[in-house]
UniProtKB/TrEMBL annotation:
Protein name: Efflux RND transporter periplasmic adaptor subunit
Lineage: Bacteria, Pseudomonadati, Bacteroidota, Flavobacteriia, Flavobacteriales
Family under the similarity heading: Belongs to the membrane fusion protein (MFP) (TC 8.A.1) family.
A Pfam family matched in the record: Beta-barrel_RND
Gene Ontology MF term list: transmembrane transporter activity
Gene3D superfamilies noted in UniProt: 2.40.30.170, 2.40.420.20, 2.40.50.100, Helix hairpin bin
Length: 360
């Protein structure tokens, strides 16, 4: 009877020993794939919300008070410089011009008579000078009346596309009343806001004197067929947003862009000698990014990194890891900090090539 418990105990011990052996064998066979950061020249494309403006966009207003007699153009029409657009009833101004011309004629006759008298020493030189001044004043009144009459014809100051009409024929206009707006769309100014840190990077870069070329993504998610050039930066930051406005100029030969459109500026930002790691090697804790660095004893060390830019499947890292480090690539959820593991190294170039990412 004593032999039976002894046999059972021996079997239990052998069974536990067998399980432990299998567990140790499994652990011995588990290897985690690791790689190293790689240094490459690459670039990213950043997009900024943009507002599109005509290079010239003005309001056309009535310069004189009166009835709108004729409208010679239509909404959305392309007009040429000097083309007549509106005609304000000119009757009063024509009468003023005729009156001024008559007074100028009278002044001229009086000057001629005074000149004859002055030649015969009948009148003084002062009276002759007064007659000349009266004629000059009358001529000035004629010029003023002609100017007012000219204001009754509203003409296009430049080639452009007019907007909708704010008045109709027969309307009684006040001086300065809005008639329409006119846009010169031959070139477009595109404004976009840049954060302070990116502005400093741009303004302190070695090529800051070169004209930066940018693209434009339209609202239909298609890229505009012309490239723009960043030409100016506004003088002040917006205290509420911390941004500063840049302005890029785009040619618009096909007239695709119109005043008031929106889009996104696409700016290529180069990174020279960038340290790159796969995104899959990272994890987040409270909005901070980390990787597992494997030390010389194959012990896992949780390390915080600073991401400078994001590429498809890759991060450009500015702080946290070096080219000499080995980082855990797979099995991030299976290991713990300070744990010793077995590893298998994968060449960085091979890892990146399998991620199908653009990197120069």
């Amino acid at each position: 009877m004593r032999r039976i418990p002894m046999i059972i105990g021996l079997l239990v011990v052998l069974g536990l020993s067998s399980c432990n052996s299998k567990k140790e064998t499994h652990e011995d066979q588990t290897k985690f794939l690791v790689t190293s950061p790689i240094k490459k020249d690459t670039s990213i494309i950043k997009d900024y919300v943009a507002q599109i403006h005509s290079i010239r966009h003005i309001e056309l207003r009535a310069l004189e008070k009166g009835y709108l007699k004729e409208i010679h153009v239509d909404e959305g029409q392309f007009v040429k410089k000097g083309q007549k657009m509106f005609n304000i009833m000119p009757n009063v101004y024509q009468a003023d011009l005729q009156k001024a011309e008559a007074e100028a004629k009278i002044a001229e006759i009086e000057l001629n008579n005074t000149q004859l008298l002055a030649d015969g020493n009948v009148v003084s030189a002062n009276e002759l000078a007064m007659a000349k001044a009266t004629l000059e004043k009358a001529k000035a009144e004629v010029a003023l009346a002609q100017t007012h009459l000219g204001f009754t014809d509203v003409r296009a100051p430049f080639d452009g596309i007019m907007d909708h009409l704010h008045v109709r024929e027969g309307s009684l206009l006040d001086e300065g009343e809005l008639l329409t707006t006119l846009s010169d769309n031959s070139e477009m100014w595109v404004y976009f806001n840049v954060p302070e840190a990116e502005y400093l990077d741009y303004i302190m870069s070695k090529d800051r004197g070169d004209k930066k070329t940018v693209g434009l993504l339209l609202a239909n998610n298609k890229q505009f067929n012309q490239k723009g050039i960043v030409q100016t930066i506004e003088g002040e930051f917006n205290n509420e947003t911390g941004n500063i406005a840049f302005r890029a100029t785009f040619p618009n030969p096909d007239g695709i862009l119109r005043h008031g459109e929106t889009g996104s500026i696409l700016m290529t930002i180069p990174f020279k000698d960038a340290i790159i790691i796969p995104q899959k090697a990272t994890f987040e804790i409270l909005d901070k990014k980390y990787v597992f660095v494997i030390d010389e004893n194959n012990v896992v060390q949780q390390t915080e990194i600073t991401v400078a830019a994001e590429l498809p499947h890759l991060f450009v890292v500015s702080k946290g890891v070096s080219l000499k480090d080995k980082i855990l690539l797979d099995g991030i959820r299976m290991v713990k900090n300070k744990e010793k593991i077995k590893t298998e190294f994968a060449e960085p170039n091979e890892v990146i090539s399998k991620l199908a990412v653009y990197a120069e």
